[in-house]
Amino acid sequence: MAERMTQTQLVRELAESTELNNKTARALLDSLAAIAVRETKKNGVFVIPGIGRLVRQERKARIGRNPATGESIKIPAKKVVKFRVAKSVKDAIVPPKKK
Q1: What is the pTM (predicted TM-score) of this model?
Q2: Residue 1: pLDDT above 90?
Q3: Residue 28 near residue 14, CB atoms below 8 Å
Q4: How far is the CA of 18 from the CAs of 6, 13, 63, 86, in angstroms?
Q5: CA-CA distance, 36 to 21, in Å (whole number)?
Q6: Domain ranges of the chain
Q7: Is the dihedral of CA 70, 76, 81, 83 positive or negative?
């Protein structure tokens, strides 16, 4: 498996492709992350055009099992955040099978 891109590499590539300096590119990336968190918290969804969306969901309380003992336990309701990838991105990364 190939090495993943680091934040520094991402900032460098953003800076080169947009003809900005590294400091401005990092500020842009940090600002995008802060806006995503704020909007998902406030509205429950944040769309990154062409990539996907961050969605806050509410999970209901449920009964689960302790796998070690088999004992029933109550799992409380909670909020979770999911990322839904846009169909165009998914198809570009993993092409759909031909029927």
Answers
A1: 0.76
A2: no
A3: yes
A4: 18, 9, 51, 23
A5: 23
A6: 1-43, 44-99
A7: positive
pLDDT at residue 71 in the model: 93
pLDDT digits (tens, 9 = 90+) for 9-53: 999 999 999 999 999 999 999 999 999 999 999 999 999 999 999
**Burial environment of residue 34 by CB neighbours within 10 A (0 to 12, 13 to 18, 19 or more):** exposed
CB neighbour list of residue 31: distance below 8 Å, 6 or more residues apart = none
Classified by CATH at the fold level, domain 44-99 comes out as: HU Protein; Chain A (4.10.520)
Instruction: Indicate the residue type of 80.
Output: V
Q: Cα separation of 47 and 83, whole Å? A: 10
Written as six digits, the tokens of 99 are 């029927």
